[in-house]
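thread: overnight batch results

M.L. [08:02]
morning all. the overnight job finished for the chain we discussed friday. pasting input first so we're all looking at the same thing
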Amino acid sequence: MVKESNGLLDGVRVLDLTRVLAGPYCTMVLGDLGADVIKVEEPGRGDDTRQWGPPFIKNGLSAYFISTNRNKRSLTLDIKSPQGMAILRDLVKQSDVLVENFKVDTLARLGLSYEELTNLRPDLIYCTITGYGYTGPSKDKPGYDFIAQAQGGLMSITGPVDGEPTRVGIAIVDIQAGLNACNAILASLFARERQKTGQRIDISLLDTQVAMLSYAASNYLVSGKLPKRYGNAHPNIVPYQSFKAKDGYFAFAAGNDLQWARFCKEIGREEWVIEQRFSTNPDRVAHRLQLIEILSDLFSTKTVSEWLEICERAAIPAAPINSIEQVFQDPQVLARGLVTKSLIDGEAILMLASPLKIPSHPVSLRYPPPRLGEHNREILSDPLGYSPEKIDELEKQNII
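M.L. [08:03]
and the structure it wrote out:
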């Protein structure tokens, strides 16, 4: 049975035909918000990320799979068989949203196009996530986060000034594509309440990455000048980067002239506020190299903790550059409840919690990441109403 939800999406059912990261991240957020997410997986194999390890927990689930599959129920289903296709169509009739990330037109070739499925459920919200989208000369190519980071320009502006182009340390395009899909689905659900119609949503990794260029793209489109790599520095704000203190590195951000003036006053260098080279942000950007050299010498005279205390007194944004271990020891991270614990087959597992804070309808962990096919009988009996005997027969035929 579906566990009771107090979430904002209580009563919404999501049919999840995705795997790996972009799609599962989208459906996880929908599940966090209270939707009933049914994750359809290939019998005997399941989502590729179930095997992406180590590390694994005792029952064999990988840490990677755990990271994007909470608040879902798992149904194994051979959708290439006539019986599996019939079950999937029955599920479509009972679902509000379908999300898939197969190659372009894969589901259409199986008889599961948007047009065909809306005959079963006219107000269905049908979301596809692909590498390049459903139009354009590259639409049939497979899509990967790393390739999107490269082709979409992110790597050209990431990394050391004189080093090689660098990918972001996590699959940021996949995750953002998942969030874009989630945003479009939420907007479609809202519109459906008014218009009583479904939607066809087309999300691509490359579109996502190009849109993520944000002000870097705007800088180029306005000036015609190619953005450069600045390492940890900012192209439009100075000083806004990492600096080396006596005992390590820290992040420092004087984001506006008032913050810069407060910092200068705190360290007894008021003359920098009125000096023409450094008085305004455009001046500091124009004289970036001179100012960074001066500040680098200054910051090397004290420890990270000493500089953080100085910055806090002056109300200047600054932070240590934490390891992942240090992140989960940070008092603010702990206070915000960003780590949660779940029992998976009797084993207590620490997991990331949702960052969504909605006091009136708090996000909850209703389902831990599921074992493959864990909810087969539950889903087939409710909402589909299949008898135990019919479910037994489906198991014998390896349909589920």
